[in-house]
Amino acid sequence: MLTLFDDLWLLPLGFAAGILGSMIGLGGGLVVVPVLTFFGFPPALAASNSLFAAFSNAVASTISYAKQKRIEYSLGLKLGLLSIPGTILGALISDQITPSLFKILFGILLVASSAYIYSKRKIESKVYNTSKQVMVLAVAASFFAGIISSLFGIGGGIVFVPLMVIAMGLSMRFAAPTSQLILLFASASGMIVHSILGHPDFYQALLLAVGAFGGGLVGSRLSVEVEEKKLKILVSAVMVVAAIKLIIDSL
């Protein structure tokens, strides 16, 4: 019984990750996984537990963003389905990666994510473009996003949001909400494969998911009200510090 109460800290962790994940469109795994890793969770366990939070966060965010009419459903469904093969591969190789290598790779991913978040307002959308060349790029990017989604438990938004804004010309106002729809497919498929392989702790995953669901509802509402400047600076700084700590630990 004591162990059950010991894990309750995962609820507020999921909630905080859900708020940030929903607002920036990258999924809460960028918060959950470093924290779990700091507490000694093996890579496969951290990633699989995080995917439950990512899925729950995506459900809540998608519901809220749908009411705001900020989702491009056709594009979201296509990219979501294209990500599934990659998520299967990512889950299969997640327990083959060493903790040290996982920390190094995730640290690099955090630095890339923080750079993207900090420069988010500088990224300008162009004319909406879904040409054949762009869709070929989308297929490759979706497969890659699926791999890192399942391997790191982050959902894949770090690939999908820049893809939709920079390559396809979708405005940021619609890209982050559409990313949450995509993450429904990416996180769900990865979550299922990880579960089949026996990676997650379902009680811990449930606590993270409950917290992330509430955070997703709050974050999607705050996204239309809060001033992003201070938030993105804070999030970027935290990610860089977490990345440095992960890389130092791995060495």
Output the number of helix runs.
11
Strand proportion, as a percent range, falls in under 5%
Helix content: over 70%
Write down the overall mean pLDDT.
83
Shape annotation: globular
Largest sheet, strands/sense/barrel = none
Number of domains: 1
- Span between N and C termini? 36 Å
Helix/strand class? mainly alpha
Uncertain parts: none
- Order of SSEs, N→C? HHHHHHHHHHH
Let me know the number of strands: 0
Describe the overall structure.
α3 (29-38) runs parallel beside α11, α5 packs parallel to α9 (172-196) and α7 (132-152) packs across α9 (172-196). The protein contains 11 helices and no strands. The chain has one domain (11-250). With 251 residues, the chain is mostly helical. The longest helix has 25 residues, at 43-67. Helices cover 78% and strands 0% of the residues.
List the helices and strands and how they pair.
Layout: H1 2-6, H2 10-24, H3 29-38, H4 43-67, H5 73-93, H6 99-118, H7 132-152, H8 157-167, H9 172-196, H10 202-222, H11 228-250
